[in-house]
Structure formats: C-alpha cells, structure tokens
Specification:
about 325 residues; alpha/beta; Carbamate kinase; eight-stranded mixed β-sheet; 10 helices; 17 strands; about 40% helix; about 25% strand
C-alpha cells in the first residue's frame, strides 16, 4: 500500500481504543480452562465484529487485562518450582500477552470472516516504560495485590523466603494476606511506532495486554521489572499512540456510579463534562482498584485529547458508541 493510499485510509478512519475487563476472558465462577476462555473471547469478539459492521469506518485497537491468567501461571510455577525455574512478573506478563492475544486474534478473525469483513488482526508483545523512581517502587508503597491469598503465618514465611512485600488486604478473613507489587504509572508505549503503523494500515491490533510488560531505563537499556501496570491507564497511553477518536472501556457494569453498592446509588448514564467528573473522582466516589482507575484513565484521555471517553458494559458496546448507553465523559 502506497503512502497516498495510507493517508486516504487514515483520513477516513474513526479510531477506537477498546479496553476490555477481565470478564471478557474469564468469568468469576469459572476455572479458566481453554474452552471457557475461548468461549468468552468468542462472545467478546462477536461484539468487536458488530462494532465494525455497524460502521465500517471504525478502526479498532484492543487492550485487555490478564489478572486471572497471570495469577494461575504464577501458581503453576510455584507448584513446579523444585523442577522448573519460576519466572518473574515481566516474563509472566509476556507469556499471558501471547496466550490471550492468540485467543482474541483467533476469535476476532473468525467472527469478522463470518460477517464478511475483510480485516486482519494481530497481537503485539508490548513493553510499557515506567519510571524506576515512581513512588510505587519506594519502601512499602507497592499497592497491587497479585497471586494467592494466605494466612498471616504463610504470608510472613513467604516474605522471608522470597523477599516479597506482603499485606493484609482483607482483614475480615483469616486468609486475607497477599503479595503486593508496585503499580507504577505508565510513561510511554515502547512499540508505539509499530502499533501506529499497523492501525493506520487498517489492521486490528491487540496490544498492551495486562497493562503492558513493565520496563525501566537502566544503563541505556530497557530492563523488565517486577511490577504490574494498571491496564486502563496503559490503555489511555495506547489511545494517545493511535490518536483515538474514542476511548471505550468495556466492563461488567453498565456505567460508572455514585454511591456504588449503597441504597442511594446514582447511575451516571449519559454525557458528563470533564470538570464534573473530576469533582466526583476527587470526592472518592469511585473505588480504588475497580472503577477508580477506569475513571482516571478516561479523565486523562479527555483532558489530553479533547475527545470522548466511555465506560459501558460489554453487551452494550454498539449502543454506547451510538451514545445510547454508558457513561460518556466529554470536555
């Protein structure tokens, strides 16, 4: 494809960065077998195909979480540690990017073909740069729980054995202790030029899975670190890379809410201006570790680009893009 053709294609595109929640891959009540995960990816991929069929000018870039998959992989490695050397979190992240990327790539390509849509889909093993001086790497600031739950005795033994930082994340239960790792802010996407080139060529790109593989600059090189980047904040950086017209976060609830889980809950359905949503965020209406990072990622997107960000449920993706569902944050 020549430069002129690429420029014409880029001009006619409506670029959408879609960030998928964990329910798009594994449901809470499932074991996480290949069959279960492929079925979930198939359901999600049908939505992706429906989005493109609804408006063929739409160009999709996709990112996803990897929490259950990386947790299971870490557990497998721990069980086999006496026979096979376990791998650190950056390697685990890369392995799950390949696993989940394959499942989505396979199902998206299949469902596009069923709809008669001639598009290619590709997964990129993707690094994301973070700052080694990020506060999350300092002292006991690390805040991202990973892996299994333990009793206090088990957790402290693992702390001594493996030099882990452990915290009691659920004080109300006996097994409330978990390993916690840094969750640094993403700075930039390392493979951004390749991603942008593919998206501009009309390829559906799956990238920054699980928040991306965290790397830092050290002695002039990129080095992987034991950390987890929030997938929605990394998704916002990916939206910048492709110059997305819409940043769409698809999750297991229909919208952001005020007073979530309380009798006086208020569903935020429709359009909300940036200053108003900032007020809600600053007032801590959105839970840290769940809706909070999603809203923050949307705020950053709208603030930096002046373009729309949406939080909606997976089954309402097409309706959300038609401005008929979800929470819409606008300038």
């Amino acid at each position: 494809m020549g430069i002129h053709s690429l420029n014409c294609l880029r001009f006619n595109m409506v670029k959408i960065l879609i960030a998928l929640g964990g329910n798009a891959i594994k449901q809470a009540n499932e074991q996480g077998t290949k069959k279960e995960q492929m079925l979930n990816c198939d359901v999600t991929s049908k939505q992706i195909a429906a989005i493109i069929k609804d408006d063929p000018t739409r160009q999709i870039c996709l990112t996803h979480g990897n929490g259950p998959q990386s947790g299971n992989l870490a557990l497998q490695q721990d069980i086999a540690k006496d026979k096979i050397a376990p791998q650190p979190l950056d390697i685990v992240g890369a392995m799950t990017q390949g696993q989940i990327g394959f499942m989505f790539q396979n199902r998206i390509q299949t469902n596009l073909a069923k709809e008669g849509i001639n598009k290619q889909c590709v997964c990129i093993i993707n690094q994301v740069l973070v700052d080694i001086n990020d506060p999350q790497f300092i002292g006991d600031n690390a805040s991202k729980p990973v892996g299994n739950f333990y009793t206090q005795e088990e957790a402290l033994a693992l702390k001594n054995e493996k030099n882990w930082l452990v915290k009691n994340v659920k004080p109300s239960v006996t097994k409330g202790w978990r390993r916690v790792v840094p969750c640094p802010d993403p700075l930039s996407n390392v493979e951004r030029n390749s991603i942008r080139l593919l998206v501009d060529a009309g390829v559906i790109v799956i990238a920054s899975g699980g928040g991306g593989i965290p790397v830092v600059q050290k002695d002039g090189e990129l080095v992987g670190v034991e950390a987890v980047i929030d997938k929605d904040l990394a998704g916002q950086k990916l939206a910048e890379v492709i110059e997305a017209d819409v940043f769409l976060i698809l999750t297991d609830v229909e919208c952001a809410c005020l007073n979530f889980g309380k009798p006086d809950v208020v569903k935020l359905i429709g359009e909300f201006h940036l200053p108003q949503m900032k007020e809600y965020y600053d007032a801590k209406h959105f839970l840290h570790g769940s809706m909070g990072p999603k809203v923050l990622a949307c705020l950053r997107h709208v603030e930096k680009t002046g373009k729309r960000a949406i939080i909606a449920s997976l089954d309402q993706a097409v309706a959300a893009l038609a401005e008929k569902a979800g929470t819409h944050i606008i300038p």
